[in-house]
Design brief:
330 residues, alpha/beta, Rossmann fold, UDP-galactose 4-epimerase, domain 1, two-stranded parallel sheet, 13 strands
């Protein structure tokens, strides 16, 4: 079997490759421009592993993606730009990566004879601030910022190409993914990376609002398992939520991590709760999460050295970094 993994040197992509190797894939082609991916995320692989890493920008018109996709059985499209603030400040870059990049990957996929499945990594941010929890797949779509919008536009392209060109596609909407190898770049982003760097430095955790807001924290190996479950299933042209089956307050996360906390202003455009209804994926794909938050946090703390080089955020630096967020969404 041959798999294409766009964004394969990234956080989720590298864990997916670990999973595919356990499934005895004979050829895995990684396409990654290394803007957020890291070669080190694949540095643990055996030298004999059937993984070819290609430094490729999928949105670059000069790149002929078809040459990499030839005879592929599965395509896992994870390459994308993430984070809220940069998407507000540079929407053109996000459109090029997340929408045009997805368009180009779909166009290349159309030319593959016998493609078994195209799996797209979508985002639960498409729901914006939902009316109901747990949130079902048929909930209203109302993205709050360009990152969420561009990921949704990519999903719409996927579903349309699946219907019109008879591509076997599936979209997975991920909820609050965390785990080893998550991003450590200078962009202010996911809470785990922020908190772990603060824990290493011995500075207080910067808790947004009162900390009672809850998040559906989903461990990355469960995400990788969901990607393969969607790929190998006979079901196509469907959308599935992927979550932990629960939701947890930020205050509870701080208690698990252990340390002092300080509170910073609540941000506009953020829901008080994210909580996936995962009954559809459990019923149709037979998938269910395996890693509880308590076990996941323990695994993160065991690998905390990974975040030694991550920026240490303070209330002051966060306020400066998120100015455009407040200006745009207030």
């Amino acid at each position: 079997m041959k798999a294409i993994v766009t964004g394969g040197a990234g956080f989720i992509g590298s864990h997916l490759i670990d999973h595919l190797l356990k499934e005895n894939f004979k050829e895995i082609v990684v396409l990654d421009n290394m803007s957020t991916g890291r070669p080190e995320n694949l540095g643990h692989l055996d030298k004999e592993a059937p993984v070819k890493i290609c430094h490729v920008d999928i949105s670059d018109e000069r790149v002929k993606l078809e040459t990499y996709f030839k005879n592929a059985d599965y395509i896992f499209h994870l390459a994308a730009l993430a984070d809220i603030v940069p998407s507000i400040e540079n929407p053109d870059t996000y459109y090029k990566s997340n929408v045009h990049g997805t368009f180009r990957v779909l166009q290349a996929a159309k030319k593959i004879k016998g493609l078994k499945k195209f799996v797209y990594s979508a985002s639960s941010s498409c729901y914006g601030i939902p009316d109901h929890y747990p949130t079902k797949e048929n909930s209203e779509i109302r993205p709050e910022y360009p990152y969420a919008l561009t990921k949704r536009m990519g999903e719409e392209l996927l579903l349309h190409w699946g219907k019109l060109y008879k591509l076997p596609v599936v979209s997975l909407r991920f909820f609050n993914v965390y785990g080893p190898r998550s991003r450590t770049s200078g962009t202010y982003g996911a809470v785990f990376g922020v908190f772990l760097a603060q824990k290493i430095a011995g500075t207080p955790f910067t808790v947004v609002g009162d900390g009672n807001q809850t998040r559906d924290f989903t461990y990355v190996t469960d995400i990788a398992d969901a990607l393969w479950s969607a790929a190998k299933a006979s079901i196509s042209n469907e959308v599935f939520n992927v979550g932990s089956g629960n939701h947890y307050s930020i205050n509870h996360l701080v208690d698990l991590l252990g340390g002092k906390k300080t509170y910073i202003p609540k941000r506009p455009g953020e829901p008080d709760c994210t909580f996936a209804d995962i009954s559809k994926i459990k019923s149709l794909l037979g998938w269910k999460p395996q890693i509880s938050l308590e076990i996941g946090v323990r695994k993160m703390l065991e690998n905390i050295d990974y975040w030694k080089e991550a920026p240490i955020w303070t209330p002051e630096s966060i306020a400066e970094e998120t100015k455009s967020w407040f200006n745009a969404l207030s």
